[in-house]
Amino acid sequence: MNLHLTRCAVGLFWLFAAVFMAGEVTAHGGLSMEKDYCKLRVGPYVMHFTGYQPGDGYRQEFCEDIPSTGETIVILDFIDDALRDLPVAVRIIRDDGSGRDLDSATVYHVPSKVYPKGTFSFDYQFQQPGNYIGLVTVGDENQQVIGRFPFSVGAPFYLRYSSLAALFAIGFGLVYGIWRWRRAAKGAAAT
User: Fold this and answer.
1) Looking at per-residue confidence, does 26 or 18 come out higher?
2) Are residues 59 and 134 in the same domain?
């Protein structure tokens, strides 16, 4: 009975691990746009976002938080063809919670421009870790839509993988608890 309970607990742990890890494994490998997690929605328009940090040894692409400070290359590919005829502007602001005006919070700005090839890229050197907000503006002065995308830069390793660490801690606690329970049950049966 105890062996059966242990096997069930270990099986349950691996099931949870597989479920939680599936998002990490497929985060950018979807073959269809429905499974593409790196999409930015700006009003009715959709762009594909890709980021790289070539100088940090982090050669994998990312599409959410930026792993560390330093040189960062960001590429926006327009999924909607209508974007090729519309001006697009990008602004990165530091999110320090102060509510200061847009110009003083801006750390990087690319003025509005039409990108007929449907691809826009820029390089930026993030000097400080912290929370930022990306603002992508599509359209002219008469009709604009703005997409707002919060992200962090240089989050410590333990914060980037906190859900995985929590899963392992829960699994370890579960296995340890079962081991202690079995040990106590054997001690009680022996007396």
Assistant:
1) 18
2) yes
